[in-house]
Amino acid sequence: MDPIRPSRGKARGRPQIPINQPVISSLTSSLPQGIRGPRPTILQPTQSSQPLQAPTTGVGMQRPPRLMPPRPPGTAPQQRAPRPLGPRPGITPDTTAPTNDPMEGVQQVTEGLKTLGTGGGDSLVPLGRGAVRGRRQIDLEHFRTPRPQSSLGDIGKQGTSGQPIKLLANYFPITSYTNWCLYQYRVDFNPEEDRIGTKRGLLAQHRERLGGYLFDGTMLFSGKRFDPATFELASTRRPDDQIVIVTVKFTNVIETGDYANIQVFNLLLRNCLRHLKLTMIGRNFYDPEAKIDMAQHKLQLWPGYETTIGRYEDNILLCAEISTKVMRQETVLDFLNQCAADRNRNKDWMINFKSGVVGTTVMTKYNNETYRIDDIDENSDPNSEFSKKDGTKMTYMQYYKEKWNMTIRGGRQPMLISKNKKSIRRFGVEDTLVYLVPELCIMTGITDAMRNNFTLMKDMAIHTRVNPKERMDRLTNFANRLLSTPDSVTELKRWNLTLSNKLVELTGRTLQPESIQSRTKGYNGGEEADWTKHLRSLPMFTSASVKHWVILAPKDCCREVEAFAQNLAKAGQGMTFLLPKPVICPLIDGRSNTFLTELEKVINDSNPSLILCVIPSARGDIYSMIKRKLCIDRAVPSQVVLLKNVQKNNMSVCTKIAIQINCKLGGAPWLVTIPKKGMMIVGFDVCHDSQRKNISFGALVSTMNDSHTSYFSCVEPHESGEELSVHFATGISKALSKYRNKNGTLPTSIIVYRDGVGEGQISHVHKTEVRLLQTACEQFYGPSSVPFAFVIVTKRISARFFAPSKRGPENPRPGTIIDSVVTDPTKYDFFLVSQHVRQGTVTPTHYQVIEDTLRLPPDIMQRLTFKLTHMYYNWSGTVRVPAPCQLAHKLAFLTGQSLRHSPNVGLDELLYFL
Hints:
Blueprint: E1 52-53, E2 59-62, H1 104-113, E3 163-169, E4 171-176, E5 182-190, H2 196-204, H3 207-210, E6 213-215, E7 219-222, E8 230-237, E9 242-254, H4 259-274, E10 279-281, E11 284-286, E12 292-294, E13 299-311, E14 316-331, H5 332-340, H6 349-357, E15 361-364, E16 370-372, E17 375-377, E18 385-387, E19 393-395, H7 396-404, E20 415-419, H8 421-427, E21 432-436, E22 441-444, H9 448-451, H10 454-464, H11 468-484, H12 486-494, E23 498-499, E24 504-510, E25 515-517, E26 522-524, H13 532-537, E27 549-554, H14 558-574, E28 583-587, H15 592-606, E29 610-615, H16 620-633, E30 638-642, H17 643-648, H18 651-664, E31 679-688, E32 695-703, E33 711-719, H19 724-743, E34 749-754, H20 762-781, E35 788-794, E36 801-802, E37 816-818, E38 829-833, E39 845-852, H21 858-868, H22 883-899
Parallel strand pairs: 27-28, 27-29, 29-30, 31-34, 34-35
Antiparallel strand pairs: 1-2, 2-21, 3-24, 3-36, 4-14, 4-23, 5-7, 5-9, 6-7, 8-9, 10-11, 11-13, 12-13, 13-14, 14-22, 15-16, 15-22, 17-20, 18-19, 20-21, 24-37, 25-26, 31-32, 32-33, 35-39, 37-38, 38-39
Helix pairs in contact: 1-19, 1-20, 4-12, 5-6, 14-18, 15-16, 19-20
């Protein structure tokens, strides 16, 4: 339904599947970049017609057409790419003077952009939410975008306005560490071994020779230099007594202060966490002994920790955040049986099963390993045979019985396939598949159905919404546990690393509450940044004119719809938004085809300003059908309301719907004053098509006037592998053309808030999207271009802040800025707490300015960002991100989930997607 209130800025329902991951990938499709994989054995190519082999952590299969190329004799092992020394040379674009044709600039940019971006030799990767989000790209990690000059003045990147406030942060100081230099060695195994646990065991057999070291599976770090620089060791692999030759080769010296030092600290930290008897799932560690059973929902909650060591303004700090992993008490076989039980009514039950499993992470019962499921093989089952290393054959049932003493009882069940990602990252081909039995795989995470289960989410929130005091206690207990476990203490002492158990103290600033303007008077949202009570009793800033509107509803509830329409008009009248009496069209039933027929008839007969549809239940297909009809086929603003909300006829709900309708027709409920004139503010976000996982939609929303109450929006679809930056720059060109048409002049400055960018993508965004934005602007402004700022918005962060008070630790007030101590010295960045939350701990948002020719003082940039969090009209309070960013997310989400096609351009100046 059209939501009447956001989830407090949290992007609910965000797609988790990478940008180029198909729902059901074929066995021969190449693996999307950025998917974390399991740790199976890499199997050597054979000539067998059934080249299947059985590793110890799953059952692996080689694929004859895609064998891994053998390394020629005497060839050196593959080395890490050289470190970039700085930004690559820019591209000198063709600068064309502006033209009077409003769309000519768009066409020029669209035609010219596709040849840019590759000119500097940069390899382009698909960007956007989920592409390689959250993954470090090793080759790019050392590249730092140059810090903008506007943050290098006397005060640096720190603001000045607001009231100073003492805060605590979830960071622990590293109080001392040895100023040693480390020696880095490349370690190779012959025959090759891909399981890190086995590699560690093979290397540990030579601890006397190697002394103290850290090993990440490929690189070994030691405090001493071995002589000779390259040497071989012979180890015995325990399961089969095979001799494995371990080659250790010197590659690099890591000096104190080198970035790789931090990587070594994180390796050391992971070793310490293993000593706490925590289980690693994905990237984080969880405590199965402290699990919380939710038997009524067939779930377990495993508490755990996200940890990372990094270099911050004045010190090296350990950032620790509590985490919870949802472990479902059902296997993939249970889920298969649920889907199969519906086979008589639903012919697509197998497609539903595949959609519910492919792309998810499962954990195997027998060794607690996690695997991402990439495909389903319906032609295999536990009775299928595979070839062992010695050439003999056995069934999967026999293998699991002999190896793990697990009896498979589920009969015929299609096998799950997980691709060996490590061989893909290393060699660029897929040569190993891991076959898993559904019965032995426990599902993790929560489904959309679970998210929509109010009782389940309420019960889960008791354990997952942790208030500041409890969070601080748990973090301190974690640090004490790390410093008191004997093996962990020994590990820290060996490397002379000292960790404090006291949270970092810092000084933030709390900005004054912003003034909210109605048509007649100003007010503010107070300490909680919530102005709902003022909104209901004052005129909205601007009200749209509605001459004729229609309500479509099933005929058996028309009386209730009439009462609802009266209440809606009453709520609007209180805010001086006048809604005339609507025409109510009764439908014979609530089916989608009935709606479709009646919608076409109503539009042809009366062409209403707005159509409100009352639907009997929250069925996504009816909602999507209505939105596709009115947002793509016919450009008519629409509102969809559930029948149960019409029957409640609640005044609060009616008020919010009246505000939504006003916004969708071009009105603005309130205004926050932004003094700078001629500025265009842009938000950009990405969402995936809910059915075609290889299609994504980039949504751009930009302001069109000085009060920032008028908007332009556009959506650019792109396929995986296409360069999203080109579509982004095309959207900017469309926005500039529209701005010039509406105002008779181009904006004098631009600020872009870019969401959906992972840490590993920032340098790519800087080298391509920023460059293409400059090129697009030069098409309109000429060589002098226009001053602009490009800001990366990140919501998924581990940082938390606590405000000490007489009542104990509390959440900081909305408007709290943190721009020191825990920020990055190489970046122009800051944290902003913009919301008030009544339960749990508030999550700040991280902002990083990666380009700034506008040169606003840092204080102005921070205050402007806070002002924009007040301007999202779906909620009469602040949200987590600037309004253009949140609007772009809403538009991208609507397009990806329901429309699956670019909307009609007739709606591009209305907030029809609220």
